[in-house]
Design brief:
Helices cover 44% and strands 20% of the residues. By secondary structure, it is an alpha+beta fold. Strands 1-2-6-3-5-4 form a six-stranded mixed beta sheet, with helices on both faces. A five-stranded mixed beta sheet has the order 7-11-8-10-9, sandwiched between helices. β9 and β10 form a beta hairpin. α9 packs across α15 and α11 packs across α15. The longest helix has 17 residues. It starts with a strand and ends in an 8-residue tail after the last strand.
Length: 414
């Protein structure tokens, strides 16, 4: 992997010999909160809907007939526009990518707004998504990360087409990078191509001042858990999420939290939550813990789907398993198994050219550095049993947001 900075364009190159397809990912940093919730989502949906020279149908036909895969991904911290193509289609695929990034017309705006509203309504029909959305809305209250599905549904009719068009100008003035993985014999030729054809990817000297604040803790009134109750009287299963703010990927504690999460609830059948709450106590249909790292925060959460009568017992189960981890060292088998599991997943998801280009671009646009993956693996290998216990004590015993969806009769005494 190599970073080349030429004519103010940042290009990451990974030469993977004897691979038939090349991946190119363009990343754009998001440094400003949305004017209205949903603008960035609409932008990502409209970007491929036609350019000044190609209609949406023309784009689709060219892409499909040549086996080119082009996609847009919008996350809280970045927008990624990527393309995957056969080596011999290099010029065509990148001509299309450049056209999309420079000349999109964002046509069918009203149609996409209508479709987005329908998608959100459909998503919120899911009890699990509804409970999860309420957790995000509250734990990130008054922060851009809290632009939940409900907020988007409330705001989407306020969005004008110009708001979406403005996003393109905004991200073009933010930090940008081009990440390439594939089999190319002439590195200089590749670099020269992008400096000539992708000059719109130039980085200015004043980018990178984020207007989004860090959120390193949850503002809990009274220093206690906050419970959100969502009444759904026809629910056969209670949906419970418990969330806490933890260290970011930039922090020293992050690898320790990753290992802790794996042992506690993210490793499937062997995780403690699964074994204790599902296998031994029969509380859960589904139970796990998860970790969502973001630039300005990281969210750790527990999830369980259970019979409504087991709500209190499930919440107590979260506390019991957390305290066990905080007060007692995990076993060597658990620690080593967690590390092997995490490192194995990292290896598995670092195989294809698209995965390689995506990882390198993500690390760079997030400010983690191109050597992050290597350093991260090293830090994971150094995590001790004491580190796991200290991480559980430091982060998971703090005030949390708890979102519960269930029939009203089961929420009265919570």
């Amino acid at each position: 992997m190599k970073l080349i900075q030429k004519d103010n364009i940042d290009i990451i190159l990974q030469n993977t010999k004897n691979t038939p397809r090349m991946a190119v990912c363009t990343y754009f940093s998001i440094d400003e909160p949305e004017k209205y919730a949903g603008i960035y989502t609409l932008f990502s949906k409209l970007l491929l809907k036609g350019t000044k020279t190609r209609s949406a149908e023309d784009l689709a036909n060219i892409i499909e007939s040549n086996g080119i895969e082009t996609s847009v991904k919008c996350k809280q911290d970045y927008i990624k526009v990527s393309t995957l193509f056969l080596n011999e289609d290099f010029d065509l695929a990148l001509e299309i990518l450049a056209d999309i990034l420079q000349n999109s017309t964002f046509d069918n705006f009203e149609k996409e707004v209508f479709k987005l509203k329908g998608e959100i309504v459909s998503d919120l029909d899911s009890p699990q998504i509804k409970a999860s959305d309420a957790l995000v809305d509250r734990i990130y209250a008054n922060h851009y990360y809290g632009n939940s599905l409900v907020k988007t549904l409330n705001d989407v009719d306020k969005i004008q087409k110009q708001d979406v068009v403005d996003v393109l100008a905004q991200i073009m003035n933010s930090k940008k990078v081009i990440s390439i993985a594939g089999d190319f014999s002439d590195e200089e030729k590749i670099v020269n191509y992008f400096t000539q054809k992708f000059d719109f990817m130039k980085n200015s000297g004043d980018y990178g001042v984020s207007k989004i604040p860090n959120l390193l803790s949850f503002d809990s009134a009274g220093k206690k858990d906050e419970i959100i109750k969502i009444v759904k009287n026809d629910a056969k299963q209670a949906q419970i999420f418990k969330g806490l703010i933890v260290d970011t990927q930039f922090g020293q504690d992050y690898p320790k939290i990753v290992v802790m999460n794996n042992i506690l609830g993210s490793s499937g059948l062997s995780s403690r939550l699964f074994v204790e709450l599902r296998d031994k106590q029969g509380l859960a249909y589904t139970v796990r813990s998860s970790l969502e790292p973001l630039r300005h925060s990281s969210l750790f959460y527990y999830y369980i789907g259970t019979e409504p009568k087991n709500i209190q017992k499930s919440l107590e189960g979260f506390i019991v398993e957390t305290k066990k981890m905080a007060e007692n060292l995990v076993s060597d088998v658990e620690l080593n198994g967690a590390k092997e599991n995490i490192l194995g997943r990292l290896e598995y998801f670092s195989q294809t050219n698209m995965q390689l280009a995506s990882i390198a671009g993500y690390d760079y646009i997030m400010g983690l550095g191109l050597d992050y993956e290597e350093k991260y693996r090293e830090k994971l290998s150094l995590v001790t049993k004491e580190d796991v216990s200290k991480a559980a004590e430091k982060y998971l015993l703090n005030p949390a947001v708890i979102s519960i969806l269930a029939p009203e009769e089961y929420l009265k005494n919570i």
